[in-house]
Amino acid sequence: MTAPIDAPFPSDAWFSELVLRAVADQAAVKRLGIAELRFGIEIVDAGEHTRLFGLVLDGYEVDSVGEVAEAEFAPEVVVSGSIDSWRQMVAAIEEHGGADTAHTLNSLSIFGEPLVVRADDAMGHDKFFRFMGTLQAVFDAAGSPATVLAPS
Amino acid sequence: MVASDFPAKWLWRINHDYVEAKMFLCTQVMDEARHTEVFRKRALANGGGLGRASAVVERFLQLILDAKSYDEGSALMHLLGEAIVLSLFRAGEAIAPSPVEQQIFRLCMQDEARHVAYGTMHLRYRMERDPLMAEDFHAYLDKGEEIIAMIFATPEIAEPTAILAAGGIEQPAAVGAVAGNVMRNQVIGEYLKRCQHAGLDRRGRLHLPDILLEGIPGAKVEAVA
Question: Cβ contacts (< 8 Å) between A110 and chain B: which residues?
Answer without folding.
Answer: 90-91, 94, 183
